[in-house]
Design brief:
- The protein is an alpha/beta fold.
- The chain has one domain (about 5-165, about 205-225): NAD(P)-binding Rossmann-like Domain (Rossmann fold, 3-Layer(aba) Sandwich), CATH 3.40.50.720.
- Helices cover about 45% and strands about 15% of the residues.
- The chain has 7 helices and 6 strands.
- The protein has helices at about 15-25, 45-55, 80-110, 130-150, 165-180, 185-190, 205-215; strands at about 5-10, 30-35, 60-65, 110-115, 155-160, 225-230.
- It has a 6-stranded parallel β-sheet, with helices on both faces.
- Strand 3, helix 3 and strand 4 (about 110-115) form a beta-alpha-beta unit.
Amino acid sequence: MKAKAALVTGARGGIGAAIVARLEADGWVVHAVDVEDADLTTREGNSTVVAAALERFGRLDAIVPNAGFQHVAPVRDFPEEQWDRLLALLLTSPFLLAKYSWDALAASGEGRICVIASAHALTASPFKAGYVSAKHGVLGLVKTLALEGADVGIAATAVCPAYVRTPLVEAQIADQAKAHGLPEDRVLEDVILERQAVKRLLEPSEVADLVAFLLGPSGGGVTGVAVPIDLGWTAR
Protein backbone atom coordinates (compact mmCIF):
# COMPACT_ATOMS: atom_id res chain seq x y z
CA MET A 1 0.00 0.00 0.00
CA LYS A 2 1.30 3.44 -0.87
CA ALA A 3 2.03 5.80 1.99
CA LYS A 4 -0.62 8.39 2.65
CA ALA A 5 0.17 11.79 1.13
CA ALA A 6 -0.32 15.23 2.61
CA LEU A 7 0.09 18.80 1.42
CA VAL A 8 1.29 21.24 4.09
CA THR A 9 1.64 24.98 3.49
CA GLY A 10 3.74 27.41 5.46
CA ALA A 11 6.19 24.56 5.94
CA ARG A 12 9.53 26.33 6.14
CA GLY A 13 9.52 26.80 9.92
CA GLY A 14 7.50 26.94 13.11
CA ILE A 15 4.24 24.98 13.18
CA GLY A 16 4.45 23.93 9.54
CA ALA A 17 7.92 22.43 9.82
CA ALA A 18 6.89 20.57 12.98
CA ILE A 19 3.83 19.13 11.23
CA VAL A 20 5.92 17.96 8.28
CA ALA A 21 8.44 16.29 10.59
CA ARG A 22 5.74 14.57 12.64
CA LEU A 23 3.81 13.28 9.63
CA GLU A 24 6.96 11.97 7.98
CA ALA A 25 7.88 10.23 11.24
CA ASP A 26 4.45 8.59 11.12
CA GLY A 27 5.09 7.27 7.63
CA TRP A 28 3.35 9.91 5.53
CA VAL A 29 4.84 11.44 2.41
CA VAL A 30 4.50 15.21 2.50
CA HIS A 31 4.55 17.91 -0.16
CA ALA A 32 5.81 20.83 1.90
CA VAL A 33 5.46 24.30 0.40
CA ASP A 34 6.27 27.82 1.48
CA VAL A 35 6.41 31.31 0.08
CA GLU A 36 9.28 30.56 -2.31
CA ASP A 37 7.26 27.77 -3.96
CA ALA A 38 4.07 29.65 -4.82
CA ASP A 39 2.10 32.78 -4.03
CA LEU A 40 -0.82 31.41 -2.05
CA THR A 41 -2.62 34.75 -2.16
CA THR A 42 -3.45 33.91 -5.79
CA ARG A 43 -5.64 31.28 -7.42
CA GLU A 44 -2.74 30.20 -9.60
CA GLY A 45 -0.48 29.63 -6.62
CA ASN A 46 -2.97 27.39 -4.84
CA SER A 47 -3.73 25.45 -8.00
CA THR A 48 -0.02 24.98 -8.64
CA VAL A 49 0.81 23.44 -5.27
CA VAL A 50 -2.12 21.00 -5.39
CA ALA A 51 -1.18 19.94 -8.92
CA ALA A 52 2.45 19.48 -7.85
CA ALA A 53 1.47 17.28 -4.91
CA LEU A 54 -0.76 15.12 -7.09
CA GLU A 55 1.91 14.80 -9.78
CA ARG A 56 4.49 13.85 -7.16
CA PHE A 57 2.45 11.29 -5.22
CA GLY A 58 -0.46 10.35 -7.47
CA ARG A 59 -2.84 10.89 -4.55
CA LEU A 60 -3.73 13.27 -1.73
CA ASP A 61 -5.12 12.09 1.57
CA ALA A 62 -4.83 15.30 3.59
CA ILE A 63 -4.23 19.00 3.25
CA VAL A 64 -3.00 21.21 6.08
CA PRO A 65 -3.42 24.90 5.20
CA ASN A 66 -1.04 26.52 7.66
CA ALA A 67 0.57 29.48 5.87
CA GLY A 68 -0.04 32.82 7.51
CA PHE A 69 1.23 36.12 8.77
CA GLN A 70 0.11 38.81 11.16
CA HIS A 71 -0.34 42.58 11.04
CA VAL A 72 -0.95 44.61 14.18
CA ALA A 73 -2.59 48.04 13.86
CA PRO A 74 -5.73 49.84 15.02
CA VAL A 75 -8.68 49.75 12.63
CA ARG A 76 -8.44 53.44 11.74
CA ASP A 77 -4.83 52.94 10.61
CA PHE A 78 -5.05 49.37 9.33
CA PRO A 79 -3.51 49.21 5.83
CA GLU A 80 -6.12 48.07 3.36
CA GLU A 81 -3.58 46.11 1.34
CA GLN A 82 -2.68 44.14 4.47
CA TRP A 83 -6.36 43.39 5.07
CA ASP A 84 -6.57 42.03 1.51
CA ARG A 85 -3.43 39.90 1.92
CA LEU A 86 -4.55 38.48 5.27
CA LEU A 87 -7.93 37.38 3.95
CA ALA A 88 -6.37 36.01 0.78
CA LEU A 89 -3.82 33.86 2.62
CA LEU A 90 -5.74 32.90 5.77
CA LEU A 91 -9.23 32.39 4.33
CA THR A 92 -9.28 32.24 0.54
CA SER A 93 -6.23 29.97 0.27
CA PRO A 94 -7.74 27.22 2.49
CA PHE A 95 -10.92 27.42 0.40
CA LEU A 96 -8.99 27.10 -2.86
CA LEU A 97 -6.77 24.30 -1.57
CA ALA A 98 -9.89 22.38 -0.50
CA LYS A 99 -11.61 23.06 -3.82
CA TYR A 100 -8.67 21.98 -5.96
CA SER A 101 -7.91 18.86 -3.88
CA TRP A 102 -11.53 17.83 -3.29
CA ASP A 103 -11.71 14.99 -5.80
CA ALA A 104 -8.42 13.49 -4.63
CA LEU A 105 -9.44 13.71 -0.98
CA ALA A 106 -12.75 12.03 -1.78
CA ALA A 107 -10.94 9.30 -3.73
CA SER A 108 -8.82 8.63 -0.65
CA GLY A 109 -11.87 7.48 1.26
CA GLU A 110 -10.37 9.00 4.41
CA GLY A 111 -9.66 12.52 3.21
CA ARG A 112 -8.78 15.09 5.84
CA ILE A 113 -8.69 18.88 5.78
CA CYS A 114 -6.99 20.30 8.86
CA VAL A 115 -6.73 24.09 8.80
CA ILE A 116 -4.36 25.67 11.30
CA ALA A 117 -6.59 28.42 12.61
CA SER A 118 -6.02 30.10 15.99
CA ALA A 119 -7.63 30.83 19.30
CA HIS A 120 -8.52 34.00 17.40
CA ALA A 121 -11.04 31.92 15.46
CA LEU A 122 -12.98 31.74 18.73
CA THR A 123 -12.31 35.11 20.33
CA ALA A 124 -10.85 38.49 19.42
CA SER A 125 -8.07 40.86 20.39
CA PRO A 126 -7.63 44.54 19.58
CA PHE A 127 -5.41 45.71 16.75
CA LYS A 128 -5.78 42.47 14.74
CA ALA A 129 -8.85 43.15 12.60
CA GLY A 130 -7.62 41.32 9.51
CA TYR A 131 -6.25 38.25 11.29
CA VAL A 132 -9.25 37.82 13.60
CA SER A 133 -11.75 38.26 10.77
CA ALA A 134 -9.97 35.74 8.57
CA LYS A 135 -9.68 33.16 11.36
CA HIS A 136 -13.36 33.51 12.27
CA GLY A 137 -14.17 33.06 8.60
CA VAL A 138 -12.05 29.95 8.22
CA LEU A 139 -13.96 28.28 11.05
CA GLY A 140 -17.18 28.81 9.08
CA LEU A 141 -15.45 27.40 6.02
CA VAL A 142 -14.39 24.29 7.96
CA LYS A 143 -17.96 23.68 9.12
CA THR A 144 -19.19 23.89 5.53
CA LEU A 145 -16.42 21.60 4.26
CA ALA A 146 -17.34 19.05 6.92
CA LEU A 147 -21.02 19.06 5.94
CA GLU A 148 -20.28 18.75 2.24
CA GLY A 149 -17.54 16.20 2.82
CA ALA A 150 -19.51 13.87 5.06
CA ASP A 151 -20.99 11.79 2.24
CA VAL A 152 -17.68 11.42 0.40
CA GLY A 153 -15.40 10.55 3.31
CA ILE A 154 -13.79 13.94 3.94
CA ALA A 155 -13.43 15.25 7.50
CA ALA A 156 -12.52 18.88 8.18
CA THR A 157 -11.26 20.53 11.36
CA ALA A 158 -9.79 23.82 12.50
CA VAL A 159 -6.95 23.52 15.00
CA CYS A 160 -7.01 26.60 17.25
CA PRO A 161 -3.74 27.12 19.12
CA ALA A 162 -2.86 29.78 21.62
CA TYR A 163 0.41 31.59 21.01
CA VAL A 164 3.11 29.24 19.73
CA ARG A 165 6.85 29.76 19.95
CA THR A 166 7.37 30.74 16.30
CA PRO A 167 8.96 33.61 14.36
CA LEU A 168 5.42 34.90 13.69
CA VAL A 169 4.83 35.44 17.41
CA GLU A 170 8.30 36.78 18.07
CA ALA A 171 7.85 39.31 15.26
CA GLN A 172 4.70 40.68 16.94
CA ILE A 173 6.45 41.87 20.08
CA ALA A 174 7.68 45.20 18.71
CA ASP A 175 4.34 45.94 17.01
CA GLN A 176 2.39 45.05 20.14
CA ALA A 177 4.67 47.22 22.27
CA LYS A 178 3.98 50.17 19.97
CA ALA A 179 0.22 49.55 19.81
CA HIS A 180 -0.15 49.18 23.59
CA GLY A 181 2.44 51.76 24.64
CA LEU A 182 4.51 49.20 26.55
CA PRO A 183 8.20 48.34 26.66
CA GLU A 184 8.98 45.24 24.64
CA ASP A 185 10.09 43.25 27.69
CA ARG A 186 6.55 43.53 29.15
CA VAL A 187 4.63 42.50 26.04
CA LEU A 188 4.91 38.73 26.45
CA GLU A 189 3.46 38.62 29.97
CA ASP A 190 1.18 41.67 29.93
CA VAL A 191 -0.30 41.29 26.41
CA ILE A 192 0.46 38.04 24.64
CA LEU A 193 -0.09 35.65 27.56
CA GLU A 194 -2.42 37.85 29.59
CA ARG A 195 -5.63 35.93 28.72
CA GLN A 196 -4.21 32.43 28.98
CA ALA A 197 -4.75 30.39 32.13
CA VAL A 198 -1.40 28.66 31.61
CA LYS A 199 1.30 31.31 31.21
CA ARG A 200 3.57 29.83 28.60
CA LEU A 201 3.95 29.56 24.86
CA LEU A 202 2.97 26.35 23.11
CA GLU A 203 5.72 24.49 21.31
CA PRO A 204 5.24 23.74 17.58
CA SER A 205 5.54 20.02 18.31
CA GLU A 206 2.44 20.17 20.52
CA VAL A 207 0.36 21.47 17.63
CA ALA A 208 1.92 18.91 15.29
CA ASP A 209 0.95 16.09 17.66
CA LEU A 210 -2.68 17.23 17.59
CA VAL A 211 -2.67 17.47 13.79
CA ALA A 212 -1.21 13.96 13.56
CA PHE A 213 -4.06 12.65 15.72
CA LEU A 214 -6.71 14.39 13.61
CA LEU A 215 -5.20 13.01 10.40
CA GLY A 216 -4.76 9.55 11.87
CA PRO A 217 -7.11 6.57 12.24
CA SER A 218 -8.70 7.88 15.44
CA GLY A 219 -9.39 11.36 14.09
CA GLY A 220 -12.03 10.56 11.50
CA GLY A 221 -14.92 11.22 13.85
CA VAL A 222 -13.74 14.75 14.58
CA THR A 223 -15.18 16.98 11.89
CA GLY A 224 -16.82 20.37 11.46
CA VAL A 225 -15.39 21.75 14.68
CA ALA A 226 -12.74 23.97 16.17
CA VAL A 227 -10.21 21.96 18.16
CA PRO A 228 -8.65 24.31 20.72
CA ILE A 229 -5.17 23.82 22.09
CA ASP A 230 -5.18 27.16 23.83
CA LEU A 231 -3.82 26.74 27.38
CA GLY A 232 -7.17 27.79 28.82
CA TRP A 233 -7.47 31.01 26.82
CA THR A 234 -11.10 30.52 25.72
CA ALA A 235 -12.18 29.05 29.08
CA ARG A 236 -12.56 32.56 30.48
